[in-house]
Design a protein that fits this description.
alpha+beta; Pdz3 Domain; six-stranded antiparallel sheet; six-stranded mixed sheet; 18 helices; about 20% strand; disordered N terminus; Peptidase_S41A; protease; serine-type peptidase activity; endopeptidase activity; Tail-specific_protease
């Protein structure tokens, strides 16, 4: 594998996620009384009409308009974006924190929809659908065959809340086809992946984005952890690309004291708005550790910056993404929307976290590759900070602006310049699919096991790594795993636990070797 292949792929995927996941000040903004009176705007309308009516070939003018809007926004900044109507439903569901469906995680395996796991308490789980089942038809309409796609599956499985669906399910373990009636319902899209008490008595909360349900999820998680007498809180915002600004401020309200600054925003006209904590007092004294990495952006950076600037806790990890632009959403009337940058945000000390984008969007989007090449992901000394952008925290500590939050305690990327791709693959969907196929061969032998037995069975399967390597090769991934056998077995075991047991069991396993949590333990002992 070429040296820079993985950093490039990761940087592109990250940038796309940030563009769609950037925080916005409100869910919707409808402009009123906006008419195309300017001559240049009329010119664009006339051109589109002329092409539509007179051009020699048939042309999709809707596509031309979409591309035109996208190109206009690209001239502004990296985070002003156009969301086409066919993407808007997914974006809206992700941000509102739910969708209507039957509640399954699935894998399009060969020519059929294979259930990895039913979501607890969802329609499918309540109907008895289990991991390994194949849904072969919905209301007698077949969803089997080489033409099957996620889109065709989604059309059949989703519908109005309360609508009924008859699922035809093939169960490989019994080789029987059963009919399962379900009633579609609202399926939550969790933004708090897990909340648990670690062995060091710290509470741990993992937030994957800031959606409409995040604060409710977070508050319940924190209240439950407080009942377990936690001695501090680890807030994991790694790979969290952002979401609603209001959710970040709500969370900070629970951990900052009254009068402390949460965030500042400055509009085009120079109007500054300062948000202060009102002193809810849910968790204001015990230590807080915020975990971040190069994929933590936007609302994640608001939280990290506020915790750092107010000397409320410790930021652990690597420099964050660097997104300090506020978007506002404009619905365009056809299901599409524009998210337009309308302000910049600043941390309590006055730092702008937005990194420069004056060299163009392509350079901006490949920042991960640049950091990789400069060694910043492996050594704190390689982080570039400008002496001219020094700021002071509430207690006088020096912090830096100019792009992202620089952590108080640095933790390098796992592995080294030759092995980072391995860790990326181990925690990716392809590993999940491999484990599914392994379970599919012998599910009956696994489903009766408890966690200890699962661990023993996986760890003692000496040929498992060879089958994994072969699976990767089939999917055009050539990785040398000879020196990482221990890590491979550890991650594969975690995925077996996740698919067979629960997310909480998975995190209890995987966090035992988390380098950022180890850093906290090391620093606490000093």
């Amino acid at each position: 594998m070429k040296k820079f292949f993985w950093p490039l792929i990761i940087s592109i995927a990250l940038s796309l996620g940030i563009l769609l996941g950037g925080f916005i000040t409100s869910a919707s903004y409808r402009a009123k009384g906006m008419y195309f009176t300017n001559h240049n705007k009329l010119k664009l309308n006339r051109l589109i009409d002329f092409i539509d009516q007179e051009y020699v070939d048939n042309v999709n003018t809707d596509s031309i308009v979409d591309n035109t809007v996208t190109n206009i926004l690209e001239q502004l900044d990296p985070h002003s974006v156009y969301i086409a109507n066919d993407e808007m439903q997914w974006v809206s569901e992700s941000m509102q924190g739910s969708f209507v469906g039957i509640g399954i995680n699935y894998y399009l395996y060969k020519d059929s929809l294979s259930v990895i796991k039913s979501i607890p308490n969802g329609p499918a789980a309540n109907g008895g659908i289990i991991g390994g089942d194949r849904i072969i038809a919905v209301d007698k309409h077949s969803i089997v065959g080489k033409e099957i796609t996620s889109d065709t599956v989604g059309v059949r499985l989703r519908g109005a809340e309360g609508s009924k669906a008859l699922l035809s399910v093939y169960r490989p373990m019994t080789k029987a086809v059963i009919e399962v009636p379900v009633v579609r319902n609202v399926i939550p899209i969790k933004s708090v992946d897990v909340a648990l008490k670690l062995s060091n008595a710290l509470g741990y909360v993992k937030i994957n984005r800031f959606s409409g349900t995040t604060y409710t999820e977070f508050k319940k998680a924190l209240e439950d952890l407080k009942k377990q007498n936690i001695k501090g809180l680890v807030l994991d915002l790694r790979d969290n690309g952002g979401g609603y600004l209001s959710v970040a401020t709500d969370i900070l309200e629970d951990v900052l004291t009254e009068g402390q600054i949460i965030v500042k925003t400055v509009s085009k006209k120079g109007i500054e708005k300062i948000t202060y904590a009102q002193g809810k007092g849910l968790f204001t004294k015990a230590p807080i550790y915020v975990l971040v990495n190069e994929n933590s952006a936007s609302a994640s950076e608001i939280i990290a910056g506020a915790i750092q600037d107010n000397d409320r806790g410790i930021v652990v990890g690597r420099r964050t993404f660097g997104k300090g632009l506020v978007q506002r959403e404009l619905q365009l009337g056809d299901g599409s929307a524009i998210r337009l940058t309308t302000a910049r945000y600043y941390t309590p000390s006055g730092r702008s976290i937005q990194r420069p984008y004056d060299k163009g969007i392509e350079v901006y989007n490949h920042d991960f590759k640049t950091r990789y090449e400069h060694g910043e992901l492996y050594a704190a000394d390689s982080i570039k900070v400008a002496d001219s952008l020094k700021y002071k925290t509430l207690k006088g500590r020096i912090v830096f602006g100019g792009g992202g939050i620089v952590p108080d305690w640095f933790v390098p990327l796992r592995g080294d310049h030759g092995t980072e791709a391995i860790y990326s693959v181990l925690s990716s969907g392809i590993t999940s699919y491999f484990v599914f196929e392994e379970l599919d061969k012998a599910r009956e032998a696994y489903i009766v096991l408890d966690q200890e037995a699962i661990v023993n069975k996986v760890m003692n399967d000496k040929e498992l790594i060879n089958r994994y390597i072969k699976f990767l090769h089939i999917h055009n991934l050539q990785l040398q795993l000879d020196k990482q056998k221990e890590e491979v077995y550890f991650y594969l075991t975690g995925e077996f636990i996740k698919q067979l047991l629960s997310d909480q069991a998975y995190y209890n396993w995987i966090l035992t070797k988390d380098p950022m949590l180890k850093k906290i333990d090391e620093m606490k002992e000093q």
